[in-house]
Specification:
This protein is of the alpha+beta class. The protein has helices at about 15, 70-85, 150-155, 160-175; strands spanning about 25-35, 35-45, 60-65, 95-100, 105-110, 125-130, 135-140, 140-150. The strands form two sheets. Strands 1, 2, 3, 4, 5 and 8 form a six-stranded mixed sheet that branches. It has a two-stranded antiparallel ribbon with strand order 6-7.
Length: about 180
Amino acid sequence: MRRARDTASPRSVDDYHRGMTERVSAGILLYRQRHGRLEILLAHPGGPRFAARDDGVWSIPKGEVEPGEELEAVARREFEEETGHSLGSAGLVPLGSTIQKGGKLVHAWAVEGDLDPARATSNTYETEWPSGSGQLIEVPEIDRVVWFEPAAARVAIKAPQVVFIERLLVLLESHSAS
């Protein structure tokens, strides 16, 4: 696993790119305190490729940033598109960034909130299935969201995104100590 970059989040993808060709995403790590325990919301990718996969494929709700877009605005928009839940004007806490296995740079922000997974809805996309068949099917980008305790979230989430959970825990620990 690559070591996550501990970078301050730039305001836009242009601030980071400076001519680079890598893909950039921005997302939200929603958390809540439930019965005295921390829970973290993760999203499971939709479609037949992920239907039977679980550990290591979950993610924070996130989406790709186009040049000129503000990272925080993209994180908010993608969270709403993938969960059907608006964050409104809730303050976001930067968690920095990490690089995923394929080279995608992911920026994340934490926000405390609540969401009923049974009421979550996701946008859809078309994909070829079965692969190579030429047949397109429409699938949800996210097929479900689930609240996890931190230990279970570390197992479920893509390995490079574990750093976001760790950074959230450090932030919450520092706030409770002050």
